[in-house]
Amino acid sequence: MHVDARMLGRRPVRPTGVRTLIVGAGNAGRTLARDLTTTTSFGLCPIGFLDDNPHQRRLGRLGVLGPIDALSEVVRDHAVEVVIVAIPSLPPIELAGLLQTAAASGARVRYLPSFHAAVQRDSRSGDLVGVSPASLLGRDEVNVVRPATRATVRDRRVMVTGAGGSIGSELCRQISSYGPSALFMLDHDESNLHRLQLELHDEALLDTDELIVADIRDAARIGQLFADLRPEVVYHAAAHKHLPLLERHPCEGVKSNVVGTANVVDAAVRSGAQRFILISTDKAAAPTSVLGATKSVAEMVVRGRAGAGTSVGSVRFGNVLGSRGSFLHVMAHQVASHAPVTITDPEVDRFFMTVEEAVGLVLEAGAMAEAGETFVLDMGEPVRLVSLVESYAAQVGVTDVQLRFTGLRPGEKLNEELFSASESPTSTAHPRISATRGDPLPGEFDVAVKDLAAAAADNDVDGVLERLSALVPEYTPSPPADGAVATLFDSFYPDDF
């Protein structure tokens, strides 16, 4: 493509730092250029912008070097090493095209987060991150929470359990912006709470009533907290969630995912909470793992509390991109170091969501909960992990990525499901959310759960697996793990609830 010479700015003379092109000359791009120019420690030196606005010619000392579709030519002609996409509203499909073009031109790519960074604060260089694989999935995200949904937490006393995890902390971030009268953030890990308070308030003195250190397994402590604080809306995100570990330690999965959930929902009902929402997982559908089976029983526990005066429900979704210690961090390290990337199977695929999108839809589903429904989020089409690795590697300019296949481990599925065979999905008022009410609970369900809890308390592995199978007939325990190889995708579950 020919670029009008009048749109080409003069090439700066030997800039200090990596030659950087900014796509977007709007407020975000201009703010970013200013910060990068004045803060040399970032190591990036802006040389100009790309923008489709024909009236944009020069912004300070930097020129607009061409329209956005001239990316390849400008990267080549101006020896660009890094491209930064600074258009927060750019649709994912267009962003994916830019990433592929830049990667093909040999440039590395960074971008500014598109949702909270744009809505809650000015875009700034501190928001700069490596390109997320979410931008390569090629589908639009749903990030806008409707006013009617925000009203379910506005002026309410809200509690989030597992508040320090990836899902819990994002729940806290979004809920805090909607004006609750109080937001209680509960976690058993004080380091998580310290980090969360620092993120929310830019300081973390750990001396406020909003932070609560407690273990959901401790029924007496949870009951006392609910009696004292009287939360009106509860989002229960605390859980054990790493599939391979729970295959090895099923009793711990029961203690947290089943007993912990029962403790929290019972305390919520007794204290008169208006609404209780369990964060579940797609692995609860036709479960083949301890993780899936324990979360399936947790959904049943919640369903069993319907009609007790509290609106209750569960929300299932798949793998969360960007949670701590998972894809973004591990992938970047493995690919950048040219180490083999281990994947269980060439055909394995998973559903993916960003944490912002998942939490926004959790809030939407929670507002619709009434009588123990299980809501399932629309996560688009499943993505083959091999394709995701290859796309990411190409985007960062690595052409020799190596894959090593280790085989599916105990409890793992080749392809995830959203509903069990006995569940009938129905549409809801939200186009991205389906619901199912599930089968009637088996007779003596509460007694069976108590027996399961007792076996877990005795650390009786065989007893736990036998009772899980009785409660969830679709579940058949896997043979014991035998030295399974850890893979990059160990954390590709609703990680860090």
From TrEMBL:
It comes from the Bacteria. Gene3D superfamilies: NAD(P)-binding Rossmann-like Domain (3.40.50.720). Residues 158-435 form the Polysaccharide biosynthesis protein CapD-like domain. Pfam families: CoA_binding_3, Polysacc_synt_2. InterPro entries: NAD(P)-bd_dom_sf, Polysac_CapD-like, Polysaccharide_Synthase-Rel. Belongs to the polysaccharide synthase family. This is FlaA1/EpsC-like NDP-sugar epimerase. It comes from Oryzihumus leptocrescens.
